[in-house]
Write a structure and sequence with these properties.
Layout lengths: L20 E2 L6 E3 L6 E2 L2 E8 L11 E4 L5 E6 L5 E7 L5 E7 L9 E8 L9 E6 L7 E12 L5 E12 L6 E8 L9 E6 L1 E4 L6 E9 L3 E13 L2 E13 L5 E9 L8 E12 L6 E14 L1
Parallel strand pairs: 9-10, 15-21
Antiparallel strand pairs: 1-14, 2-21, 3-6, 4-5, 4-13, 6-7, 7-8, 8-10, 9-11, 11-12, 12-13, 14-16, 15-16, 16-19, 17-18, 17-20, 18-19, 20-21
């Protein structure tokens, strides 16, 4: 039997400001990588094998969060793969992987004809149990999912399955079960940005001051940035601005920023276009959430 060391990495209603706010409807966008690995709060894994099974050594293995073993679970954004790592209280490391055929999400049911998990195909599911310095170069097997509940961005709430694998086409089998129960998935970060329809143009330094509010459903730092554009006497005047505020749920939080004109012509009294982009990182999913508004603003002299 060939020994293969298997190592996988896991990533770990709007109140006023005393002035009218333009809160035109917009779209909140989510960007960023797939969900990072999450620590399992309640879970167990057990498996054993026939004599001659390379992975289990013909022995029974059992791990559980109640025994102070650490279980981490990861799923990708399309819910086609669930990977679990085990760091046992005795210092052992094990890795389990389950994947549906390409283009489908894992669901309740039996998956037969499985190949080694990274090599699942359009019609073949993937399976792999390895660790403690042992892994299959090739394998065949099957698994049955009896319960699976996903949250946003690959969050794994529940995953229960039984499995059987054979290394290198052998008859000796490894058989086991996995049970994972996590708390319900946290809500995704909701973010909104508003722009006041009045601002000021400084007669001293030519800068335009704009302001507004941000709203959120989680406490996060929010960066508001954008551009102020004005056409005065056939001259195009532009300036960028930026500000960061600590947003807390429950009430709008004010932001204020100054746009410095890029040319020699100062901002002047009159109408401008203000583009406001709000951005924050969802602390639960490590994704970037944004909201954008474009608003006509009237500047007065200051």
């Amino acid at each position: 039997m060939t020994m293969r060391t298997n190592i996988r990495g896991f990533g770990r209603g709007t109140a006023g400001l005393g002035l009218a706010l333009a809160l035109a409807a917009g779209t909140t966008l989510f960007t960023g990588a797939a969900a990072h690995a999450q620590t399992v709060t309640d879970g167990s894994i057990e498996f054993g094998g026939d004599q001659g099974d390379w992975i289990s050594g013909g022995q029974q293995h059992s791990f559980a969060t109640t025994a102070q073993d650490q279980l981490n679970v990861y799923a990708n954004d399309d819910h086609s793969v669930v990977s679990v790592s085990v760091y046992s209280a005795l210092g052992q490391y094990w890795d389990l992987g389950f994947s549906a055929p390409q283009g489908t999400a894992l669901a309740v049911g039996t998956y037969t004809g499985a190949v080694r998990e990274p090599f699942a195909g359009p019609t073949q599911p993937g399976l792999e149990v390895s660790g403690d310095g042992r892994g299959c170069n090739t394998l065949t097997g099957s698994f049955t999912v009896t319960n699976v509940v996903f949250g946003p961005h690959g969050y794994v709430q529940d995953f229960d399955a039984s499995y059987e694998q054979h290394c290198e086409g052998g008859t000796a089998a490894l058989r086991g079960e996995i049970h994972i129960a996590n708390a319900p998935a946290p809500a995704e970060l909701g973010l909104g940005v508003g722009v006041a329809v009045q601002g000021t143009a400084s007669t001293l330094d030519g800068k335009a001051t704009v302001h507004g509010t941000v709203t959120c459903n989680k406490a996060v730092p929010v960066t508001v940035s954008g551009q102020v554009t004005q056409v005065a006497h056939r001259i195009l005047i532009r300036g960028a601005y930026g500000a960061t505020v600590n947003c807390t749920p429950g009430a709008p939080v004010a932001w204020t920023a100054q746009a410095d004109p890029t040319g020699t012509t100062p901002f002047q009294k009159g109408d401008v276009e203000v583009v406001a982009n709000a951005s924050a990182t969802d602390p639960d999913y490590q994704t970037t959430v944004t909201d954008t508004r474009t608003v006509a603003v009237s500047l007065r002299k200051s």
